[in-house]
Write a structure and sequence with these properties.
351 residues, alpha/beta, 9 helices, 10 strands
């Protein structure tokens, strides 16, 4: 699915006003039945809230303190910086020119912005998102260079966004899913964890329909296509033990797609922290918009799962047209996620 890399229309706009929206969100959450005790329990468990930061949507500045990254609120548990090529060229000295990043400032500014964020919010994990649509150089992957970049920037790990032009998934005669990419996907994760041993964080962005195709999810919609089931072999492999967090790209899959069905399918394969994906931009494949109300409603449905959380794609992106509850920008959706998950600090400004 398209991750909106280098989309010129997704520019930075001014600060939104938080007070009125937080009042509306609090009322909406209460109407939908989230008790104060339930919210407190959610915060105590520190549910994951991973947010992608689109490098091309960052503020053009040479002052690290003025970047979006440095000013993010502490409710976001993981920030994934998008996107790095798997076949990146990086020799050191914070030279980002061959990495795939599109930040409008130098690597030195990026490093200082990460340090500034972590000085304010030491528990926030900063990840480099590797892959994404169009960055398909997995066969030429250089995870030694990637680990070097993680170290030089002072980041905490990597978000694996394993996307390919065609995963070649098909049903076998006995009703299973087999994908041409299965062996390579497992090898990629194995190599990544070897290059970045714990305590480095490794998370995975799961394709929308990547857990469909078998068992209770054999008929989940959309049922056909080369990506249906593409994450099944990976998540059932020994390599999956190297993951710390999985997020579901529960969008851009057409009008028949149901995010909660996808969440359940991934939960059947992955026992750890699992984040339901919320997208800022309108879907390019059809289907309903992630309004504020829909976002809250969806997240309410997963809160019974103690390891459930949310993913936001992405910070810095602004949808076309006037913004509001039915066409929210990333700030509104970030606050909706924060309140819905019962996290602390939801009144903090989102830059």
């Amino acid at each position: 699915m398209v991750r909106h890399q280098n989309h010129a229309a997704h520019h930075h706009q001014g600060h939104g006003r938080a007070g009125g929206l937080l009042t509306v969100l609090a009322a909406l959450v209460l109407v939908l039945g989230l008790s104060a005790g339930h919210a407190a329990a959610a915060e105590a468990e520190r549910r994951p809230f991973l947010a992608y930061l689109a490098s091309w949507a960052e503020v053009a500045t040479q002052d690290p303190a003025k970047t979006l990254l440095a000013r993010l609120p502490g409710a976001i548990s993981h920030v994934a910086l998008g996107f790095v090529k798997p076949d990146l060229a990086y020799a050191g000295d914070l030279d980002l020119s061959g990495t795939g990043f599109a930040f409008p400032f130098s690597g030195a500014v990026l490093k200082a912005a990460i340090a500034a964020l972590k000085a304010q919010h030491p528990d926030t994990k900063v990840l480099l998102a590797v892959g994404g649509w169009g960055y398909f150089g997995w066969d030429a992957r250089d995870f030694r260079a990637l680990a070097h970049l993680v170290s030089d920037l002072g980041a905490d790990g990597v978000d694996l966004d394993y996307e390919t032009a065609d995963s070649g998934c098909a049903r076998t005669p006995d009703g299973r899913i087999a994908c041409a990419d299965d062996a390579r996907a497992i090898a990629v994760l194995t190599d990544l964890r070897a290059a970045l041993p714990r305590p480095h964080v490794v998370s995975l962005a799961g394709w929308s329909v990547g857990a469909y195709g078998e068992g209770a999810f054999a008929a989940s919609q959309p049922r056909y296509g080369p990506y249906v089931g593409m994450m099944r072999a990976l998540l059932k492999s020994e390599a999956a033990r190297g993951l710390d967090l999985v997020s579901v790209m529960s969008y851009d899959a057409g009008p028949t797609y149901q995010p909660l069905e996808a969440f359940r399918a991934y939960r059947s394969l992955w026992p750890g922290p699992l984040a339901l994906g919320i997208q800022v931009m309108p879907s390019e494949a059809g289907g309903p918009r992630f309004t504020v109300a829909r976002t809250v409603t969806l997240l309410q449905e997963v809160l019974a799962d103690p390891k459930a959380g949310a993913m936001l794609y992405g910070l810095g992106l602004v949808p076309p047209g006037p913004t509001g509850p039915d066409n929210p920008d990333y700030r509104s959706l970030a606050r909706a996620i924060c309140v819905s998950l019962g996290l602390a600090g939801c009144d903090a400004p989102v830059p």
